[in-house]
Every structure is written in C-alpha cells, then in structure tokens.
Amino acid sequence: MTYRNFFSYSLLASLTLSPISFADTKDLKESDSEVPSLVIIGDDLSLSKIGGSATVIEETEIQEARAFNINEILRKAPGVFAREEEGFGLRPNIGIRGLNPTRSTKVLLLEDGLPLAYSPYGDNASYYHPTIERFESLEVLKGSAQIAYGPHTVGGVINYITPNPSDDLGGTLRFAAGTDGYLQTYGEVSDTFGESGQSTGVLFQFVRKQAEGARENMEFDIQDYNLKLIQELGENHSLTFKATRYEEDSDVPYSGLTLAEYTAAPRLNPFVNDNFSATRSGQSIVHHWQINSDINLSTAVYHSEFHRDWWRQSSNSGQRPNDSSDVNCGSMANLNTRCGNEGRLRDYDVKGIEPRLSISHALGELKLGARYQEETQDRLQINSDTPNGRTPGTSTNAGVRENNERDTQAKSWFIENSFSVADWTITPGVRQENIDYQRFNNLNNAEGETSLTETLAGLGVTYKLSSNTVFFGGVHEGFSPPRVEDVINNNDGASVDLDAEKSLNTEMGLRYDNKDNFKLEAALFLLDFDNQIVPASVAGGTGATLTSAGETKHAGIELLTHYEWLQESKLNPFTNLSWTWVSHAEYQGTRTSAITAGVDVSGNRLPYSPEHSLSLVNGFEMDNGLRAQFEIVYLDSQYTDDLNTKTVTANGQRGLIDSYTLYNISINYTLPNTDFTVFIAGKNLTDKLYVVDMSRGLIPGMQRSWQSGIEWKF
C-alpha cells in the first residue's frame, strides 16, 4: 500500500467515525426569500473555515473594470494566469500556479456549480467560454477543498455565478462601442411574483458582441442567452431551471506566425478563409430540499451539447502552406485560389446527475455527494479541395481523414467532514473517480476500451488567531484524468500507457479582514507531481504529443489585498493588488527532452509558467457618482519548450516570450438623480506590441483598445 493510499483510507475512517447530532425535524428554518445558489465558497463565514486559498470577485469589480474579456477579470485572482489567444477571451487558456494554461485543461470550470466544459472527463480542452457580462461574481478555489469537486483537482476550481431573479421587476440595458469595430449590447430583465412559499422568479439575459481581434482579417460575432426560473414548492422545496445558448461565428485562424512573418507584419493574418462556428446549449434542473434546520439536499440534473466546426488552412506555423504535397497547393501564392483546407468538426454531448447532502452536527458539518456523468464525442476531419470548401475533396490528402466516436462514463463520490473545536476547524475529505473509456475508429473499425479508478484524499485546517485573522493550511492529492485519445490507440484500439496526472499539493496562509477597509490573503503553495502530463513543446506545433513528464515541482507565493485609504472622505481612494510568484515550476528526477533526444532537462522550467504576475489597481469612488481606476498589469517572461530555448526559432513556435507591462483605465459616472451610468475604458494605453503565445507560432496581444457606452438600470 502506497503512502497516498494509506492517507486516503485513514481519512475515510475518520470521516465515517464522526459523531453526528441530528436536530429535531420539527425545528424547520423559515424560508428565505433568496433561493440557495450552487456556490463553492459562499459567505464570509464559510470562507473563514475553508482550509485553502479562496477568492471571490464581486460584481462591482467586474462591472467597473469594463473588461473586454474574461481574462482581464481572472488575473484579479492570485495564482491564476490566463493566456490570451485572439484578444477577446473566446477560447481562454487558464493556468493556475504555474500549470500549463493551454486550453484550460488543468482547471475545473463550473457555472453555478455545474460543469461548464463540454467534456470534463474525456477531453477537458476549452474551445468555448461564456461572456463575462452574464455573471454577477466568480469564485476561485484552490487547495484541499477541491476534493468536493472534480474530476480535476490539480490546479483549482473556477465557478461563475449568474444572478438570481430580483424581488421586483427590474433590469439592465447597456450599449457600448469602441475601436476595431467593437459593439456590445447587453440586456437583463427579472422579476419575482406570487406569495412566499409559492413564488416564481424569472431572469433573462442577452449578450451580443462583435469586434475585430488582435490581428488582421479577424472578426467575430457572438450571442449569449441565459434563462433562469426559480419556483418555490412550499417552505422547504424549490426548483431552479436554467437554459443557456451560445452562438459564435468568427474568422479566427488557428495558426500563428513564423518569425519572418511576425518581423515583417506582426498583426498579419494570411488565412482569410479560416472560420470558426460554434453553438453550445445547456439545460439544468436543481431541486433544493431543506429537510430540516440542519439537513439540506440538492439534486442537479444537467445536459449540454456543443457543436464546433473549425475550417482552417493551417494548423501551425510549420505549415506554409498547409499541404505542400498537393500540387494545387505548392506555395502560399496558391493559398486563396487552389489550396484546400481542413475542417475539424466536433460534436459533444454531456449529461449527468449529481446529488449533494449537507448535515450540520454538534462538531461541524458533514458533506457528501455523488455524480454519474456520460460524455459522447463525435469527431470528424474533412479536407476539402478549395479554400472555402466544406465537403470532402478528392485531391491529394483530401477526403475524410478522421471519423471517431469517443465515449466516457464516469461515476464519482466524495465525503468530507468539518470538525470545529474552539478556534480550530479541521476538514478531512475523500473523493473517488471511476472512469470508463471507449473509442471507435469508423475509418478502419478499430475499437477499444479501458478504465481508470482513483481515490483521492485531502485535509484542510483553519485556526482563528483573532476576530479578524485566520490561519489556513491543507494537503490534498491532485488528479487530472487523461483524455480518451491519450489512453486508447486510434489504429488498433489498444490501451496506451499514459498514466493519470497525480500530485501532492500543500499550502498554508493567512486571511485578514477587519470588516471595514482592509482585506488580505497570503498563501504559500507546493505542488509535487509524481507524474505531470505535458506537451513535448506546445499544443498544435512541433512536439505537441502529450508525454508523461514524470516528477515536477511547483512552488510559490500568492498575495491578494484590498485597502480603502480614506473611507470618510469624498474621494475614498482604494488599492487592489493581486500578485503571484511561482518561484519553482521545473522538471525533476530523470528527464530528457521530448524535442531533442538524450538532452537532460531536469531542473529546467516548465513551458508557459511565468515567474511573476501582477495586477495593481488604484482608484477612487466619489459620492457624486464618479468612479475611476487605473490598472498596471505585469507578466514575466516565459519559456515555451522543455529545452528552455531563448532564441525564437524560424517557425515561431519556440523561444523566450519577453515580459511585458500594460496600463488600463476605466471611468464610470452615474448621472445625478438618474439610473443612467456613462463609462469609458482604455486597454493597453501605450499600444505596446507584445507576444502572448507561441504554441502554434507567434501571436501578438491586443493593440490599444477603447470602448465607451451607457448603462440604464431600471
């Protein structure tokens, strides 16, 4: 028995032997007007008992920043690094504590506590993200409390929270316009009607955005809808129904630039025929049952469908053009005439059920839950003969190149129990994941299946040092399952020897809140991997195949502060700081390069793991309705391969990405005696040219951008 299995089973024993004191079932809590939401952190009282770092970004921070995309908001949470791609966060690349951010595969994304990714078990890559305008707040949870979620417990959990219906009829209308064709329309209306205990709440949100991106010949148009209904069924029952739909049509290329192309024209996009279209629809019903004052049960049933077609003429900067073996595509000169394209067509279907039970007892609270989830992937690659073709071609390398069905069935459960004695709260937890994988290749009839079971444990501790100060610490086992394509061979259906990603994560820190004008959270963290799954180089480019990197170590410090300088003054200036120092993110043990055979890379830094990242906001809020803030954003340099290559290679896929500093501003003014607010925001005020990504070639960050608009709350 390994020490980690011993750790798991010991904690399970402590959980099952805990004393539980049930309250009298007649002692029912009176119904609140606010129906429970599926949150993972909750209020300040809950936060004070979480044995790990946790951040809540409130609605005011989101709205007053006038962010163009989700990446601007995520950097306000320490430990989170959101790498840009096209400039508007359509496909964010989110990393936590130095983990590779590519396609956000090491992060668990939730919306109102339910899975947001289109295939969390079988393919956790994010090619879709809802608009930030739909959310009233977001939560970032790291540390041992992740055991209650999953399947990914390596980096952290990000939970986006949508608003509940208002008590009375009301809403918001917002219109904004800006540089590079930016237009935004946002509408929200909600109301609650009916008597207490039988009331019905309705919320509807609509977002439409369009703009040009960070490069030439890039345009996007997205629409995002959210309908939320909350029906009370007596004093102790309620149903929450939610339906969402997201639509995107964008001319965004997949390939970055070669070094020569970037040097000549850094915002070049030669692939004018590339197109990405996607729809994502989701539905969920959650039953909340307050059994008595100490026992609550919530049961969620959910379903989502994601359809994506990405037609492109190049998948990375090494393809110039995409298919030079085709006589009709001999050079870039043929790109817009005879050169064909590749259609990467994906359909995903996810459905699941997840009950969660919480029981308050004499010493604390017991939480347990289970989940059953099914995922289906249908994947096609169709190569066409012409730049704008959408059907299988007949020329060299054209036709149907991939036709795969990939399925997963996952069963999981967790149990955690918090014990509160005097100023101490100790929370052990255990989670188990059981995953069945199947893959069928319709081109050669190869099929295969395999399965994976993993038991994980965590232990969180808090100690109340004073009425304002809490010490927290924790240790837990990190886990991230491999994708279907990583564990079943496409040619013969055999199992592939690629282990699950596992780590032992430790952290400790302090929270301080004087309940007036100063908040602080500081944390030390260590992620010790037995086996980290990483690309040899980066996604889509040279050396993109996933490999078992073996032992790696991530260690560092996080700091989050909020301070209001002169609360009683008319100016009320404030400062918000989010800073992360990933002092170590390196290969350990015996490790040779996956790019150049035989080269020792032990001790080298992991790709896309900046050492320092910082967001510093200084602003003021006046009682006349004027609010303004100025933000400084700093991101340290990053290596892009295991060799830690510094000089940028000719294909633009490897080399050192230089550090950069950006300056942003936003000003909001609520007109006197009205419900109207006018605003203006500027991003990258110095119009700095900087590189954000080299995974498929050199990609620049957004140029200087402005938006202004008006908002009416009624």
What is this structure's SSE topology?
Layout: H1 3-16, H2 44-47, E1 54-57, H3 59-65, H4 70-74, E2 80-83, E3 93-96, E4 107-111, E5 114-115, E6 137-141, E7 156-161, E8 170-178, E9 183-193, E10 200-212, E11 219-232, E12 237-250, H5 259-264, E13 275-292, E14 295-312, E15 341-361, E16 364-384, E17 399-421, E18 424-441, E19 447-464, E20 469-480, H6 484-487, E21 501-513, E22 518-531, E23 533-535, E24 546-548, E25 552-564, E26 573-587, E27 612-621, E28 626-635, E29 660-670, E30 676-683, E31 691-693, E32 699-700, E33 705-713
Parallel strand pairs: 4-7
Antiparallel strand pairs: 1-6, 2-3, 4-5, 6-7, 8-9, 8-33, 9-10, 10-11, 11-12, 12-13, 13-14, 14-15, 15-16, 16-17, 17-18, 18-19, 19-20, 20-21, 21-22, 22-25, 23-24, 25-26, 26-27, 27-28, 28-29, 29-30, 30-33, 31-32
